[in-house]
């Protein structure tokens, strides 16, 4: 199937055919084609299922990851010590080209998201779907902000991202349980947005800590279907908290997660909590199912603060690989 050469008149118009071709493109690792077909699915006007929402997010996420990875590499070359002026100029021009492609991709996603947010479907949707779309709006505005140099333009995009995160948070707090993976994914990204983009470190840390504590307090109530997803995101939030606390004066990690430690470890002994802080989440399993982890990567569009060039020691798509791919 030569998707790229397909004439406009022959483009499939039914949702079922577009969805089937999107799945076929996914199987062939043709994510640009997959994204285009999933956009057509979204534009059909029919309500999309959660699986279809996740497929759309996954397609664009793969494309985004590639461009962001390319950009990081080019920035590294551009800022390398001892590089010749003409080499730096060439790297900068190439990086600017990637920036344009990244902005175009985000604009395409935001157009799909805006169509949903301004339609009647948004009012009739379940809360998790509302959080999903508002979070996509926030995330992709944040990605645009990463490649904007003009302070005024960047401030406007950051403001849109913040408003979307706050709207998603408002829906999530009133309609979703603290252990819901959709809500946890939102809080993970929202906290990173505050900490990294807005440089509001205390607020970002507080958002992550509050979400972590609330979820761990209800760890025994997680449904089997969402257990792996929720605990995986909890580990990512915990890891960010650990890094952030160390970055802000080396405050005791044990003190930061004492409440969560008591719940998970089943002990009320503060001394024991302080002695074994890292054991607090030792009972939370890392999701080892490839499909479950891939779904989380797509639906939460996660960011982390790990160094960008850390290599995973596991060929499987584990937590570390997720970090490397999305940071």
Walkthrough of the structure:
- The structure is a single chain.
- Helix 6 (127-146) packs antiparallel against helix 7, helix 7 runs antiparallel to helix 8 (181-197) and helix 8 packs parallel to helix 10 (224-247).
- This protein has helices spanning 15-27, 31-43, 50-78, 85-117, 120-124, 127-146, 151-175, 181-197, 201-217, 224-247, 253-256, 258-265, 270-275, 290-300, 319-326.
- The chain is globular.
- With 327 residues, the chain is mainly alpha-helical.
Average pLDDT confidence is 78
Determine the strand fraction and express it as a percent band: under 5%
Q: Ends: how far apart?
A: 34 Å
Number of helices in the DSSP assignment:
15
* Residue share in helix: over 70%
Number of strands: 0
Major beta sheet summary: none
Structural class: mainly alpha
Order of helices and strands: HHHHHHHHHHHHHHH
Name the overall outline.
globular
Radius of gyration: 21 Å
Looking at how many chains there are and whether they match, the oligomeric state comes to: single chain
Uncertain residue ranges: 5-12, 256-268, 270-327
């Amino acid at each position: 199937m030569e998707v790229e050469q397909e004439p406009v008149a022959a483009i499939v118009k039914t949702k079922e055919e577009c969805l089937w071709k999107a799945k076929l493109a996914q199987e062939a690792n043709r994510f640009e084609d997959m994204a285009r077909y999933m956009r057509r699915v979204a534009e059909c006007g029919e309500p999309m299922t959660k699986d279809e929402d996740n497929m759309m997010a996954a397609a664009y996420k793969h494309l985004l990851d590639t461009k962001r990875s390319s950009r990081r590499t080019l920035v590294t070359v551009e800022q390398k010590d001892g590089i010749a002026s003409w080499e730096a100029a060439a790297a900068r021009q190439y990086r600017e080209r990637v920036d344009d492609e990244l902005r175009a991709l985000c604009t395409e996603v935001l157009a799909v998201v805006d169509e949903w947010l301004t339609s009647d479907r948004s009012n009739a949707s379940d809360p998790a779907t509302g959080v999903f779309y508002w979070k996509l709006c926030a995330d992709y505005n944040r990605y645009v902000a990463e490649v904007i140099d003009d302070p005024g333009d960047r401030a406007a995009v950051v403001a849109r991202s913040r408003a979307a995160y706050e709207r998603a948070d408002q829906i999530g707090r009133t309609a979703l349980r603290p252990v819901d993976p959709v809500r946890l994914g939102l809080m993970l990204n929202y906290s990173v947005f505050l900490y990294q983009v807005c440089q509001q470190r205390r607020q970002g840390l507080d958002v992550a800590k509050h979400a972590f504590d609330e979820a761990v307090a209800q760890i025994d109530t997680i449904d089997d279907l969402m257990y792996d997803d929720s605990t995986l995101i909890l580990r990512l939030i915990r890891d960010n908290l650990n890094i952030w606390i160390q970055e802000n004066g080396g405050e005791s990690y044990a003190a930061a997660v004492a409440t969560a430690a008591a719940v998970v470890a089943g002990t009320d002994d503060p001394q024991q909590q302080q002695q074994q802080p890292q054991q607090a989440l030792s009972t939370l399993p890392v999701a080892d199912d490839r499909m479950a982890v891939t779904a989380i990567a797509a639906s939460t569009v996660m960011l982390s603060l790990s160094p960008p060039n850390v290599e995973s020691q596991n060929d499987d798509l584990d937590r570390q690989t997720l970090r490397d791919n999305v940071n």
